[in-house]
Amino acid sequence: MAHEIRLPSLGQTSDEMDIVSWYKQVGDRVEVAEPLLVVETDKAQVDVESAEEGVLLRIIAQPGETYTTGDLVALIGDPGEELPPDE
């Protein structure tokens, strides 16, 4: 079953952040506490670490776009796991 990766609260003054880049591509193995993506808040660029392990199945949040704490950014699951097109 796929695990949702959501933007954490980074303890910044704003809940909005821009996606700068992804360290991983779809199909890459991800470990717990491994940096997954870089976000930029109103004060700094910060690495967001994965809270799950598995394979990066889908990237939802794209670089250059703004998201809010709690927004869904990716799905991580088991190797070979298939996702429905609309999930």
What is the string of helix and strand elements?
EEEEEEEE
Rg calculated over all Cα atoms? 13 Å
**Strand percentage, roughly?**
35-45%
Shape: elongated
End-to-end distance: 12 Å
Would you identify the regions where 5 or more consecutive residues have pLDDT less than 50?
none
Structural class: mainly beta
Major sheet summary line: 4 strands, antiparallel
Roughly what percent helix?
Answer: under 10%
Structure explained in plain terms:
There is one protein chain. A hairpin with a 4-residue loop joins strand 4 and strand 5. The mean pLDDT is 91. The protein is built from no helices and 8 strands. By secondary structure, the protein is mainly beta. It has strands spanning 3-6, 16-22, 29-30, 35-40, 45-49, 54-59, 66-68, 72-77. The N and C termini lie close together (12 Å). The chain has a 4-stranded antiparallel sheet, with no helix packed on it. The protein has a 4-stranded antiparallel sheet with strand order 5-4-2-7, with no helix packed on it.
Topology:
Blueprint: E1 3-6, E2 16-22, E3 29-30, E4 35-40, E5 45-49, E6 54-59, E7 66-68, E8 72-77
Antiparallel strand pairs: 1-8, 2-4, 2-7, 3-6, 4-5, 6-8
